[in-house]
Design a protein that fits this description.
homotrimer; mainly alpha; about 0% strand
Amino acid sequence: MGTGFFAMSGALAANKKSKPDWFGVTFIGFITSIGGGSLRDMLIGAYPLGWVNDVNFVYVIMASIVLTSIFYNLLARLKKTFFILDTLGISMFTILGTEKALQHHTHYVVAAIMGMFSAIMGGVIRDILTNEVPIIFRKEIYATACLAGALIYILMSHFYFGRVTCLLFSTLVIMVIRLIAVKYHLSLPKFKEIQDAIEEHQPHTK
Amino acid sequence: MGTGFFAMSGALAANKKSKPDWFGVTFIGFITSIGGGSLRDMLIGAYPLGWVNDVNFVYVIMASIVLTSIFYNLLARLKKTFFILDTLGISMFTILGTEKALQHHTHYVVAAIMGMFSAIMGGVIRDILTNEVPIIFRKEIYATACLAGALIYILMSHFYFGRVTCLLFSTLVIMVIRLIAVKYHLSLPKFKEIQDAIEEHQPHTK
Amino acid sequence: MGTGFFAMSGALAANKKSKPDWFGVTFIGFITSIGGGSLRDMLIGAYPLGWVNDVNFVYVIMASIVLTSIFYNLLARLKKTFFILDTLGISMFTILGTEKALQHHTHYVVAAIMGMFSAIMGGVIRDILTNEVPIIFRKEIYATACLAGALIYILMSHFYFGRVTCLLFSTLVIMVIRLIAVKYHLSLPKFKEIQDAIEEHQPHTK
C-alpha cells in the first residue's frame, strides 16, 4: 500500500514540472517508490531486494500509475487527503525499514537511520532525477520526524511491547509530529546564517 | 564493444557542455559505460561486478577515451554513424542485461526492467553528474524500446528458440523501434498536460 | 578522523549555498563522509559496510557536526588549515580504500579506482544533492592525485615495503601533488575545446 502510494506521489510530482511522457512518469513513480528501500537493502546487504524478489511490487506500482492517470484531476484537488496519505506512507516505510534493519543485526542508531532512509531516499532520488533541490532540505520537519519515530519504535521493542503495538504507536508518533509541524510551520533551526560572507570578503581599497 | 562505445558516447556528451579536463571526460565516460550494469548487478546482488572482476573493461574504456580524443572531429561530424552505434549499444546492453538477470532467477518482468536499467542508467547517471535533466525524459521513444526488446527476448527464450536467435532478433527489434521512432519523431503520449495550474490557483481579488 | 573531517567539510559546504536547517547540514555531512566508502564497499561487495557495522562512525560524524557549529566562525576563517586537513582527508581515504579493495582481491588498477572513489565520491554525491556541478570537474588536479597515490601505494606494496611505509609515503605523495597543484593552479589539459560548434552548425543564408 505504501509502495503504491509513493508511486502515485512520485508520478504527480514528476508531472508537475517537466511534463514527461508515460514512460517518464512511470519511471519516476517507480524510483520514488522503490528507491529508499532498495538503497537500504543495498547498504545492509539484505539480498534479495524486495521488489527484485517479488514482482507484485512492480504490478502495484504500475496499477498506481494508471490510477493516478485516471483520477488525476481528483488527486490534484485533494491536497489534504494526499498530504495525509503521504504522511501515512513515510511513517510506515520508516518503521518497517527500521524493523528490517534490526533483523539484520545493525546497531539501533544505524537501524533508525536505515528506517529514515527507506522513507525519504526515494523522494531524494526523485528530486535529483528531476533536477530539483531535494525536498528534505526545504520542508518543515520531515526526515527528523521519521528519525524520532524510528527511535521510539526501537525503544518500545526493547521493552518487550508487542510488535503491533510498537508499529502502530511509532507510526502514529511520526504522523503526529509531521501534522503538527506542517500545521504550525515548524522547522528545525537553521545551522548558521551568519558570516558566510567572511570567506569571500576582501578588504576594498577606496 | 558496447562498453567501449558507451564510453565514447559519454565522453562526447561530457565534453559538449562543461569542457572538463581529461580526467573529467574519462570519469564521465567510465560512469556512462559501467553505471547501468553496475546498478543492475548491485540490485540483483550479482557479485562480483563485471568490471570489478575483469580489468579489461577498464582498459577498453580508457582506450575508447583516447580514440575519442584522436578522432574527435571525425566523430563529432559522423552523427548518423554515431546514432546507429549508440542504438546498437543500448540494444546489446538491454538484451545481455536481461539475460544476466534471468540467470539470477528474477521474475521475467523484473528481468526486463533490469535489462532496460543496464542500457539507460549509465546515461541517467551521466546526466545527473553533468547537472542536466536525464535524456530519457526528453527523447523520442528510447527506454520503452529497450523494455519491448527485453520482453520479446524473454518470450522467445521461453519458447526454446536458440540463444543466438533470441539475442539477434530482440536486439534487432530494439534497433528498429528506435530507428523508426527517431525518423518519424514518435514519442509516447504525455501523461497529463492539463490542470496542473489548479493546485497553485488562488482566486484573485479585483 | 578522516570521517569526522569529511563530515565537517560537507557541513560547511552544505551551509554555504542553501542555508539548510540542522537536519539538512547533518544529512549532507553524513553523506559526504560515508558516501565514497559505502559506494566502494557496495561495488566490491564488501559487506557489512563500515558504518553499518560500527556505530562509532555515526557518533564521530554527529560530534563533528556539533563541533562545526560551535567553531563555525573559526573554521570559516581558517581556510588554509581547512585546505590542509581536507587534503589529508582525501589522501588517507584513498590509500585505505585502495588497501581494502586489494584485500578483496581486485586487480590493482581496479583497486586504485576504488581508492579514488572512496576519496571523491562522497563529495560528488554531496554536490549532486545540493544541485551543483561536482567539484571534481571544476578544480585543479584533485582526483588524479588520488589515483597517482593509489598506484604508488600498490607499487610499493608489491615490492614488499612495510605497510606503514607504504601508507605514509603514498599519502604524502597525494598531499604533495595536491598542494603543488593548488599553489601553481595546475590542472590537466582540457579534452577538446574546438569545434563543438560544428555539430549544431547550420549554414546561414544571407
